Protein backbone atom coordinates (compact mmCIF):
# COMPACT_ATOMS: atom_id res chain seq x y z
CA UNK A 1 0.00 0.00 0.00
CA UNK A 2 1.44 3.40 -0.98
CA UNK A 3 1.88 6.29 1.41
CA UNK A 4 -1.10 8.67 1.50
CA UNK A 5 -0.24 12.25 0.58
CA UNK A 6 -2.42 15.31 0.02
CA UNK A 7 -1.76 17.32 -3.12
CA UNK A 8 -3.45 20.15 -4.97
CA UNK A 9 -5.47 18.61 -7.78
CA UNK A 10 -5.82 19.94 -11.34
CA UNK A 11 -8.85 22.04 -10.40
CA UNK A 12 -7.09 23.62 -7.43
CA UNK A 13 -8.84 21.52 -4.77
CA UNK A 14 -7.15 19.17 -2.36
CA UNK A 15 -6.87 15.65 -3.68
CA UNK A 16 -5.69 12.59 -1.77
CA UNK A 17 -3.71 10.09 -3.82
CA UNK A 18 -1.43 7.19 -3.10
CA UNK A 19 2.19 7.83 -3.90
CA UNK A 20 3.15 5.98 -7.04
CA UNK A 21 -0.38 5.95 -8.45
CA UNK A 22 -1.56 7.98 -11.45
CA UNK A 23 -4.32 10.47 -10.55
CA UNK A 24 -7.46 10.22 -12.74
CA UNK A 25 -7.34 12.40 -15.84
CA UNK A 26 -3.55 12.61 -16.06
CA UNK A 27 -1.37 11.04 -18.74
CA UNK A 28 1.50 8.91 -17.48
CA UNK A 29 4.09 11.13 -19.16
CA UNK A 30 2.89 14.19 -17.29
CA UNK A 31 2.53 12.65 -13.85
CA UNK A 32 6.11 13.34 -12.72
CA UNK A 33 5.95 17.04 -13.54
CA UNK A 34 2.53 17.43 -11.97
CA UNK A 35 3.51 15.58 -8.80
CA UNK A 36 6.60 17.72 -8.39
CA UNK A 37 4.58 20.94 -8.68
CA UNK A 38 1.97 19.60 -6.25
CA UNK A 39 4.66 18.60 -3.74
CA UNK A 40 6.10 22.12 -3.86
CA UNK A 41 2.65 23.61 -3.27
CA UNK A 42 1.97 21.09 -0.49
CA UNK A 43 4.96 22.38 1.46
CA UNK A 44 3.11 25.70 1.89
CA UNK A 45 -0.04 24.11 3.29
CA UNK A 46 -0.79 24.83 6.96
CA UNK A 47 -3.95 22.96 8.06
CA UNK A 48 -3.60 24.11 11.67
CA UNK A 49 -3.54 27.74 10.59
CA UNK A 50 -6.59 27.14 8.38
CA UNK A 51 -8.46 25.63 11.34
CA UNK A 52 -7.45 28.50 13.60
CA UNK A 53 -8.72 31.08 11.11
CA UNK A 54 -11.91 29.06 10.62
CA UNK A 55 -12.62 28.94 14.35
CA UNK A 56 -11.98 32.66 14.76
CA UNK A 57 -14.19 33.66 11.81
CA UNK A 58 -16.91 31.01 12.23
CA UNK A 59 -15.96 29.27 8.99
CA UNK A 60 -17.01 25.65 8.54
CA UNK A 61 -15.97 22.91 6.10
CA UNK A 62 -18.53 20.62 4.48
CA UNK A 63 -17.78 17.49 2.45
CA UNK A 64 -19.81 15.09 0.29
CA UNK A 65 -22.13 13.10 2.52
CA UNK A 66 -22.49 15.86 5.13
CA UNK A 67 -26.09 17.01 5.77
CA UNK A 68 -25.31 20.47 4.39
CA UNK A 69 -23.67 19.19 1.18
CA UNK A 70 -25.81 19.99 -1.93
CA UNK A 71 -26.23 16.81 -3.95
CA UNK A 72 -26.59 18.90 -7.13
CA UNK A 73 -22.79 19.21 -7.07
CA UNK A 74 -22.60 15.49 -7.79
CA UNK A 75 -23.66 16.32 -11.36
CA UNK A 76 -20.12 17.61 -11.89
CA UNK A 77 -18.76 14.06 -11.75
CA UNK A 78 -14.96 14.03 -11.54
CA UNK A 79 -14.93 17.83 -11.41
CA UNK A 80 -16.98 18.00 -8.22
CA UNK A 81 -15.29 19.95 -5.41
CA UNK A 82 -13.71 17.81 -2.73
CA UNK A 83 -15.02 20.13 -0.03
CA UNK A 84 -16.45 23.61 0.46
CA UNK A 85 -15.61 26.26 3.03
CA UNK A 86 -18.66 28.19 4.25
CA UNK A 87 -19.01 31.45 6.14
CA UNK A 88 -22.42 32.69 7.21
CA UNK A 89 -25.54 31.41 8.99
CA UNK A 90 -27.53 30.08 6.01
CA UNK A 91 -27.76 26.34 5.26
CA UNK A 92 -26.11 25.64 1.88
CA UNK A 93 -28.07 22.55 0.90
CA UNK A 94 -31.41 23.98 1.96
CA UNK A 95 -30.71 27.26 0.19
CA UNK A 96 -29.89 25.52 -3.08
CA UNK A 97 -33.19 23.62 -3.23
CA UNK A 98 -34.82 26.73 -4.73
CA UNK A 99 -32.05 28.74 -6.29
CA UNK A 100 -31.23 30.83 -9.34
CA UNK A 101 -27.81 32.10 -10.41
CA UNK A 102 -27.64 35.68 -11.66
CA UNK A 103 -24.37 36.50 -13.40
CA UNK A 104 -23.00 39.09 -15.77
CA UNK A 105 -20.48 41.73 -16.60
CA UNK A 106 -18.27 43.45 -14.02
CA UNK A 107 -18.36 46.61 -16.13
CA UNK A 108 -22.15 46.68 -16.05
CA UNK A 109 -24.30 49.45 -17.45
CA UNK A 110 -26.91 51.29 -15.34
CA UNK A 111 -29.52 49.24 -17.22
CA UNK A 112 -27.86 45.95 -16.28
CA UNK A 113 -27.39 46.94 -12.66
CA UNK A 114 -31.04 47.89 -12.36
CA UNK A 115 -32.25 44.64 -13.95
CA UNK A 116 -29.94 42.50 -11.77
CA UNK A 117 -30.99 44.26 -8.56
CA UNK A 118 -34.68 43.96 -9.40
CA UNK A 119 -34.40 40.28 -10.32
CA UNK A 120 -32.39 39.56 -7.15
CA UNK A 121 -34.91 41.36 -4.95
CA UNK A 122 -38.01 39.84 -6.52
CA UNK A 123 -36.66 36.28 -6.60
CA UNK A 124 -35.42 36.47 -3.01
CA UNK A 125 -38.73 37.95 -1.89
CA UNK A 126 -40.43 34.86 -3.33
CA UNK A 127 -38.10 32.57 -1.40
CA UNK A 128 -35.58 31.79 -4.15
CA UNK A 129 -31.91 31.87 -3.19
CA UNK A 130 -29.92 34.23 -5.42
CA UNK A 131 -26.51 32.74 -6.27
CA UNK A 132 -23.70 34.75 -7.83
CA UNK A 133 -19.95 35.26 -7.67
CA UNK A 134 -19.57 38.37 -5.51
CA UNK A 135 -17.87 40.35 -8.28
CA UNK A 136 -18.39 44.01 -9.05
CA UNK A 137 -21.22 44.89 -11.41
CA UNK A 138 -24.05 42.42 -12.02
CA UNK A 139 -23.03 39.97 -9.26
CA UNK A 140 -22.97 42.60 -6.52
CA UNK A 141 -26.23 44.15 -7.73
CA UNK A 142 -28.00 40.77 -7.55
CA UNK A 143 -26.68 40.09 -4.03
CA UNK A 144 -27.67 43.56 -2.84
CA UNK A 145 -31.14 43.20 -4.32
CA UNK A 146 -31.68 39.97 -2.39
CA UNK A 147 -30.35 41.47 0.85
CA UNK A 148 -32.60 44.50 0.44
CA UNK A 149 -35.65 42.25 0.82
CA UNK A 150 -34.00 40.26 3.63
CA UNK A 151 -34.02 37.29 1.26
CA UNK A 152 -31.55 34.42 0.80
CA UNK A 153 -28.38 34.86 -1.25
CA UNK A 154 -24.95 33.25 -1.47
CA UNK A 155 -21.68 34.19 -3.16
CA UNK A 156 -19.26 31.62 -4.58
CA UNK A 157 -15.70 32.93 -4.26
CA UNK A 158 -12.57 32.23 -6.30
CA UNK A 159 -10.58 32.89 -3.11
CA UNK A 160 -10.86 32.08 0.58
CA UNK A 161 -14.08 33.15 2.29
CA UNK A 162 -12.00 35.29 4.65
CA UNK A 163 -10.53 37.29 1.75
CA UNK A 164 -12.55 40.27 0.54
CA UNK A 165 -12.10 40.40 -3.23
CA UNK A 166 -12.81 42.75 -4.79
CA UNK A 167 -12.05 45.10 -1.92
CA UNK A 168 -14.79 47.45 -3.10
CA UNK A 169 -17.36 44.85 -2.02
CA UNK A 170 -15.96 44.50 1.50
CA UNK A 171 -19.10 45.95 3.09
CA UNK A 172 -21.32 43.64 1.03
CA UNK A 173 -19.32 40.57 2.07
CA UNK A 174 -19.41 41.58 5.73
CA UNK A 175 -23.19 41.83 5.55
CA UNK A 176 -23.46 38.49 3.74
CA UNK A 177 -21.24 36.81 6.35
CA UNK A 178 -23.62 38.15 9.00
CA UNK A 179 -26.92 37.04 7.46
CA UNK A 180 -26.35 35.11 4.21
CA UNK A 181 -23.57 32.79 2.99
CA UNK A 182 -20.09 32.96 1.44
CA UNK A 183 -18.84 29.78 -0.28
CA UNK A 184 -15.47 28.65 -1.66
CA UNK A 185 -13.58 25.46 -2.42
CA UNK A 186 -10.37 27.35 -1.60
CA UNK A 187 -9.07 27.28 2.00
CA UNK A 188 -8.90 30.45 4.11
CA UNK A 189 -6.27 32.95 3.05
CA UNK A 190 -6.24 31.89 -0.61
CA UNK A 191 -5.92 34.79 -3.02
CA UNK A 192 -7.80 34.74 -6.35
CA UNK A 193 -6.26 34.19 -9.77
CA UNK A 194 -7.61 33.82 -13.30
CA UNK A 195 -7.79 30.01 -13.20
CA UNK A 196 -9.69 30.03 -9.92
CA UNK A 197 -12.32 32.33 -11.39
CA UNK A 198 -12.77 29.96 -14.32
CA UNK A 199 -13.17 26.85 -12.19
CA UNK A 200 -15.42 28.74 -9.75
CA UNK A 201 -18.01 29.13 -12.52
CA UNK A 202 -18.81 25.41 -12.56
CA UNK A 203 -19.82 25.56 -8.87
CA UNK A 204 -22.17 28.49 -9.46
CA UNK A 205 -23.87 26.62 -12.31
CA UNK A 206 -24.08 23.32 -10.41
CA UNK A 207 -25.51 24.80 -7.21
CA UNK A 208 -28.39 26.55 -8.97
CA UNK A 209 -31.51 25.30 -10.73
CA UNK A 210 -30.89 27.72 -13.57
CA UNK A 211 -28.64 30.59 -14.60
CA UNK A 212 -29.67 34.06 -15.76
CA UNK A 213 -27.09 36.08 -17.71
CA UNK A 214 -28.08 39.73 -17.33
CA UNK A 215 -25.24 41.39 -19.25
CA UNK A 216 -22.19 39.81 -20.90
CA UNK A 217 -19.68 41.19 -23.35
CA UNK A 218 -18.29 39.04 -26.15
CA UNK A 219 -15.57 37.53 -23.90
CA UNK A 220 -17.31 37.82 -20.54
CA UNK A 221 -16.54 35.28 -17.84
CA UNK A 222 -20.30 34.96 -17.32
CA UNK A 223 -20.43 33.03 -20.60
CA UNK A 224 -18.30 30.38 -18.90
CA UNK A 225 -20.99 29.95 -16.25
CA UNK A 226 -23.58 29.77 -19.05
CA UNK A 227 -21.58 27.02 -20.77
CA UNK A 228 -21.49 25.01 -17.55
CA UNK A 229 -25.24 25.48 -17.05
CA UNK A 230 -25.83 24.00 -20.51
CA UNK A 231 -23.40 21.15 -19.90
CA UNK A 232 -25.14 20.24 -16.64
CA UNK A 233 -28.63 20.41 -18.14
CA UNK A 234 -29.67 23.43 -16.12
CA UNK A 235 -32.04 26.05 -17.50
CA UNK A 236 -30.08 28.83 -19.19
CA UNK A 237 -31.71 32.26 -19.45
CA UNK A 238 -30.58 35.61 -20.83
CA UNK A 239 -31.85 39.16 -20.55
CA UNK A 240 -31.87 41.11 -23.83
CA UNK A 241 -30.22 44.51 -23.94
CA UNK A 242 -29.94 47.46 -26.33
CA UNK A 243 -28.83 46.25 -29.76
CA UNK A 244 -25.89 48.68 -29.81
CA UNK A 245 -24.67 47.78 -26.31
CA UNK A 246 -21.37 45.92 -26.16
CA UNK A 247 -22.37 44.73 -22.68
CA UNK A 248 -25.22 42.68 -24.16
CA UNK A 249 -23.42 41.07 -27.10
CA UNK A 250 -22.91 37.85 -25.12
CA UNK A 251 -26.56 37.70 -24.06
CA UNK A 252 -27.75 38.18 -27.63
CA UNK A 253 -25.42 35.42 -28.78
CA UNK A 254 -26.90 33.06 -26.17
CA UNK A 255 -30.39 33.92 -27.42
CA UNK A 256 -29.35 33.07 -31.01
CA UNK A 257 -27.58 29.81 -30.12
CA UNK A 258 -28.99 26.42 -31.03
CA UNK A 259 -30.59 25.60 -28.67
CA UNK A 260 -31.21 29.17 -27.60
CA UNK A 261 -31.21 30.45 -24.05
CA UNK A 262 -34.65 31.32 -22.71
CA UNK A 263 -35.39 35.03 -23.01
CA UNK A 264 -36.45 36.51 -19.65
CA UNK A 265 -37.30 40.05 -18.61
CA UNK A 266 -38.80 39.66 -15.12
CA UNK A 267 -38.77 37.36 -12.13
CA UNK A 268 -42.04 35.61 -13.01
CA UNK A 269 -40.51 34.45 -16.29
CA UNK A 270 -37.42 33.18 -14.47
CA UNK A 271 -39.51 31.17 -12.00
CA UNK A 272 -41.66 29.82 -14.82
CA UNK A 273 -38.53 28.62 -16.63
CA UNK A 274 -36.74 27.20 -13.59
CA UNK A 275 -39.71 25.66 -11.77
CA UNK A 276 -39.97 22.42 -13.78
CA UNK A 277 -36.28 21.63 -13.07
CA UNK A 278 -36.99 20.75 -9.42
CA UNK A 279 -39.06 17.64 -8.66
CA UNK A 280 -41.23 19.71 -6.32
CA UNK A 281 -40.36 23.19 -7.59
CA UNK A 282 -43.07 25.64 -6.50
CA UNK A 283 -45.00 28.28 -8.35
CA UNK A 284 -44.78 31.70 -6.67
CA UNK A 285 -48.24 31.21 -5.17
CA UNK A 286 -49.32 27.56 -5.02
CA UNK A 287 -47.24 24.38 -4.49
CA UNK A 288 -46.94 22.24 -7.60
CA UNK A 289 -47.78 19.08 -5.68
CA UNK A 290 -50.68 19.47 -3.22
CA UNK A 291 -50.81 17.31 -0.10
CA UNK A 292 -53.06 14.67 -1.65
CA UNK A 293 -50.57 13.95 -4.45
CA UNK A 294 -47.56 13.34 -2.22
CA UNK A 295 -46.19 9.81 -2.16
CA UNK A 296 -46.81 7.75 0.96
CA UNK A 297 -43.34 8.25 2.46
CA UNK A 298 -43.32 12.01 1.95
CA UNK A 299 -46.84 12.24 3.38
CA UNK A 300 -45.76 10.25 6.45
CA UNK A 301 -42.97 12.75 7.11
CA UNK A 302 -45.35 15.69 6.65
CA UNK A 303 -47.91 14.18 9.01
CA UNK A 304 -45.23 13.59 11.65
CA UNK A 305 -44.87 17.34 12.15
CA UNK A 306 -47.03 18.93 14.87
CA UNK A 307 -49.89 21.24 13.96
CA UNK A 308 -48.27 23.91 16.14
CA UNK A 309 -44.65 24.38 17.10
CA UNK A 310 -41.61 22.56 15.74
CA UNK A 311 -39.88 19.19 16.02
CA UNK A 312 -36.30 18.07 15.47
CA UNK A 313 -35.39 15.72 12.63
CA UNK A 314 -34.82 12.79 15.00
CA UNK A 315 -38.26 13.24 16.58
CA UNK A 316 -39.90 13.40 13.16
CA UNK A 317 -38.07 10.22 12.09
CA UNK A 318 -39.29 8.33 15.16
CA UNK A 319 -42.91 9.38 14.68
CA UNK A 320 -42.83 8.64 10.94
CA UNK A 321 -41.04 5.33 11.47
CA UNK A 322 -38.31 6.19 8.98
CA UNK A 323 -34.51 6.48 9.06
CA UNK A 324 -32.81 9.87 9.37
CA UNK A 325 -31.41 9.91 5.83
CA UNK A 326 -34.86 9.37 4.31
CA UNK A 327 -36.44 12.00 6.57
CA UNK A 328 -33.73 14.55 5.73
CA UNK A 329 -34.32 14.05 2.01
CA UNK A 330 -38.10 14.27 2.29
CA UNK A 331 -37.92 17.40 4.47
CA UNK A 332 -35.85 19.05 1.77
CA UNK A 333 -38.45 18.23 -0.86
CA UNK A 334 -41.29 19.38 1.38
CA UNK A 335 -39.45 22.64 2.03
CA UNK A 336 -38.96 23.19 -1.70
CA UNK A 337 -42.68 22.63 -2.20
CA UNK A 338 -43.56 25.13 0.51
CA UNK A 339 -45.02 22.66 3.03
CA UNK A 340 -42.41 23.00 5.80
CA UNK A 341 -39.77 25.49 6.93
CA UNK A 342 -36.84 25.59 9.30
CA UNK A 343 -37.37 26.87 12.84
CA UNK A 344 -34.96 27.39 15.78
CA UNK A 345 -36.19 24.11 17.30
CA UNK A 346 -36.17 22.08 14.09
CA UNK A 347 -38.89 21.95 11.43
CA UNK A 348 -42.45 23.28 11.42
CA UNK A 349 -45.42 23.41 9.07
CA UNK A 350 -45.85 26.54 6.98
CA UNK A 351 -49.05 28.56 7.11
CA UNK A 352 -49.84 27.16 3.67
CA UNK A 353 -49.54 23.56 4.92
CA UNK A 354 -51.80 24.19 7.90
CA UNK A 355 -54.52 25.74 5.75
UniProtKB/TrEMBL annotation:
Organism, scientific name: Actinomadura rudentiformis
Sequence similarity: Belongs to the DprA/Smf family.
Annotated Smf/DprA SLOG domain residues: 61-274
Protein name: DNA-protecting protein DprA
BP term (GO), one: DNA-mediated transformation
Domain of life: Bacteria
Residue runs in coiled coils: none
Gene name of this polypeptide: dprA
